[in-house]
Structure formats: C-alpha cells, structure tokens
Amino acid sequence: MMSKFxxxxxxxxxxxxxxxxxxMKVREAIQSVPAGYVxxxxxxxxxxxxxxxxxxxxxxxxxxxxxxxxxxxxSASYGEHLSKEEAENFxxxxxxxxxxxxxxxxxAGLSAATISPAGDWLSVSxxxxxxxxxxxxxxxxxxxxxxxxxxxxxxxxxxxxxxEGHLDFVHPTITFPSPISLxxxxxxxxxxxxxxxxPLASCSTSGITPDCVLSLYGIPTTKATQxxxxxGVSGFEDEFANKADLATFLNEFRPDLEGETFSLQTVDDxxxxxxxxxxxxxxxxxxxxxxxxxxxxxxxFISVGLENKxxxxxxxxxxxxxxxxxxxxxxxxxxxxxxxxNTISFSLxxxxxxxxxxxxxxxxxxxxxxxxxxxxGGHTSSCTDFVPVFPTSCPFVTSVGATQLTSSGGETAAxxxxxxxxDYFGRQSYQTSAVSSYLAFLGSTDSGLYNTSGRAFxxxxxxxxxxxxxxxxxxxxxxxxxxxxxxxxxxxxxxNDALIAAGKxxxxxxxxxxxxxxxxxxxxxxxxxxxxxxxxxxxxxxxxPVTGLGTPNFAALKAAAGV
Length: 563
What we know:
The termini are far apart. The strands form nine sheets. Strands 12, 13, 14, 15, 17, 19, 20 and 23 form an eight-stranded mixed β-sheet that branches. Strands 4-5-3-9 form a four-stranded antiparallel β-sheet, sandwiched between helices. The protein has two domains: 2-78 and 92-171, no CATH class; 206-560, Rossmann fold, CATH 3.40.50. The chain is built from 14 helices and 27 strands. It is globular. The protein is 28% helix and 21% strand.
C-alpha cells in the first residue's frame, strides 16, 4: 500500500508541475522536417489529438525465440505454433507498467482505452495544449507542399523519467503521413487501356492469365478440401473488391471455379460497396489472383477503413490486432501496400514488426509485396542512398518481388521490383549464407549506398507484369509486386490445405523453411532493379535482392513441406 501511495504522489506531482520543473527525457526526435513538408503554424490548443500509447512489452525477445523455435524446420518444436494466450504472454506489459501509465493519464484527467488483445496499446484523446504540456512537445500544423495534405506533428517529445521502462512511445508524433497515403504497391503498364474480354494465349508477354500462372509454377487446379484453411487479403484506402468483376474474371479465365467468391471482414469501419464504379484496381487484382489461383481455398477480404488515416500505419497495426484477437486467424495473409522505411520512426516500425512476429508464431504466413521503385523504395523517386521498404523489410514477414515473362517463355526480373537491405533490422540467421554469397558476388559495386548488415529482401518472387484483371466488366493489364504477393500466397495456401488434410500444422512463418529449401524455386538469374541513378542490384544465381530465392516450384515446395 505504501509503495502505491508513493507512486501516486510522484505521478501527481509530475502531472501538475510545470514542464521546466519536471524530470523529463526525450523519447523520440527528428532533426528536420521530412522532405515536402513545411510548418504552416501552431496547432490550435483545443484541437483534439487521438494518440496511441505503446507500453513496454514484458518479453519481446522471448517471443522472437519462440517464433524461430516453431518455424525452423530442424527445430524439435517445428510446427507447434503458439496459442493466442501463449503469444500474448510474451507481449503483455507488466501490471506495474499498465498501472504507472494509466495513473499518470488519470491524474491529468485523461482516460485511456486498451486497443490490443495483449493490452500493450492504449488510445487516448487529448487537446493539443495539454499534449504539449504532458510531453514537452510542440505540436504544429505541417503541410505537404505538393499535395496540400496537412498533419499535426511534433519534432520531438519527452516522457517523465519515472515512466521509462513502462511507456515505450507515442504515435502519431514524429512520423509524418506519406504524401500519398498508404499508396498501393501497384502500377499500370503502358497498354491500350481497358478492353472487352477476348481470348488470349494463356502465356504471353502481352497478357498473363491464371492459366499461365498455373502452368509456370505447376500449381494444381484440383480444389482445396479444408474449410478451416483460410487466406486473408488486406484492403486499405477505400479499395473495394467487386464480386461481379470476380464472377466475370472466373467465367472467362477459371470456368471450373465459377461460383466461387470471397467473404468480408471489416476493421476501423471499413466497407466494401459493390457499385461497379467503386471497384478498386488493387482490391480486384488481389482478390482475383487469390480466388483464381488458390482453387477452393476460402478467401477473406479484410477491408480497413479510414478511421485512423491521420496515423497512416495505425491501420496496419489495427488489422494485425484484429487478427490477433481472433481464436483462428487466417493461415495466410497477403498485403500489397507499403511505405519507404525512412519515413517511419524506428520505434513504430519495430513494434509493428513484433506484432507480425506474434501472428507468425501462432501459425500465420504473412506476405508483403516488396515495392515498385527498384532500389528507390516503394515507388520510383529521387534518392541518393538506396531506400528500403517497410513493412516488407521486417524480418518476420515474407517479402515478394516481381518477375516478367520473356519472349522465350522464361522469367526475368521485373525492373521495378524493389529489393535491398533494411536500415532498421539486422540480417537474420535464416538468410546469412544466401546473402553472404550474394555480397561476395557483388563486391564493391555501389558500396556505401546500402546497409550490408541489414535484413535483405525480397525473399521470393512471382510473375508481376501484364496480368489480366477484370474491372467494371472489362479487362485491364496491371504490373506490380502487388500481383506477385497474392500469387505466392496462393501457393502457400494450397500447400497448407494439403498439410491440414494430412493432420499436420500449416507452414506459419515461412522464411526459415524457404531458405532451407533453395532448390524448391525457379532461380531467376537475369535483370536488375535500377534506381537512385544506378543500375540497382543485378539478379544472379541463387538469392538476389531483386527476385529473392526465385519463383515457386509448387511440387518441390509441397514435397519440402512433407506432403
């Protein structure tokens, strides 16, 4: 009782003392305003900020150890995925941390809501004036000069020293929104535009159909049988998947799957209206090439609303927390969106990366498109040093690059396929040998432009140029690593179907398994990914930061999985 009284007294004095008298420590800071943004004035003191507070997790290192234990093929615990409760035990804050932070907020007249299953995230609404006092911050209005997008942010903020070890970080504070919010990792190639559906060769540089994908990778057309095996597709930015377009797509390209559809889940007041004019290029692509490739696997479109658009990446966190709250999350999740890694604070990126580790430890394979800017990042941009992409740079997800068909019917690297080395996350043991060999091959080329000790990506690749999709009843061709991620995810979903049918565990976190079986891929040895006024990285024999280990050989991957 005495200790609680002392904590209460200390926090009371902290809340109501003037900032200069408080014992504060800077928690996060940036040295300059991000490119394109200018400060346009102080934020109104009574403007409400919706802040997220991350509490210090009690044992994140133990979570990562457990993730590798259940995901490494030669581990005695391989495939013994954690339960919901076991995973949460690693990331739940201590009772002391929860009490200390909530007491501090309560003494300031604020009430926080718990917004994650493990209790490691809180949400609180606070006026700008009070936020400035609480965090020794200077929240101001910043405007992006090209887009006119505005955001209230601060260049630095502090927390009471007594909360160190309890309060991890606060968002949104120093991470500015992407000028093109949550821009989808997809581009439309030069082509005549939309056209009426007409028969084309199944494998042609002028148009890739599901039949071509199935043929390239030896994927069976036999329908999956396990209803418990699910494939999730992330949707952001009011991109909606249209069922009528899917029906047209299947009727033309997979008539044996006619009548197949997808289910819907929503996060942050997400929607999926079915007006033809609201069909999204990205959403239709992702759904058509999961339903159309993963024959018979139940597919769920998870539509994340714009409730937290000012925080950008919070939608990414919300979808993961939503799935972590489920007793049976999907065994595969594919996402075709991303950000340049250098636009995000390390604390936020690291926390979200650990959330992926939590879901992976429970048996979900998480795949992300690697990006469409070559070594320039998520999209082509001006740069000096090479730009990694997040979340695909997180070591606990599987990053998928893109290839394109050659005139001879083989595959080569797509020039836009983003790849490289993270500046935030170190190289993982599962890829040490493969990446070391590549760096030796590369030698001094572009030395100093990338982090040679960083987590390397992509891990794998799949076809990503001139895919035919249906939108508003007509065919359009699309390019992008966002084509590649749902295709590779469909391969994994079908292998999981066979595993579950055999009474075995799904693959879960893929990377240790993938790198342990390099022979299960079609090695892509030509092409590169230029950017930043360089030729980028060249593809070569073995792993490379353009196409990863290569494109899937379904039969070999399935055999490596033991089915």
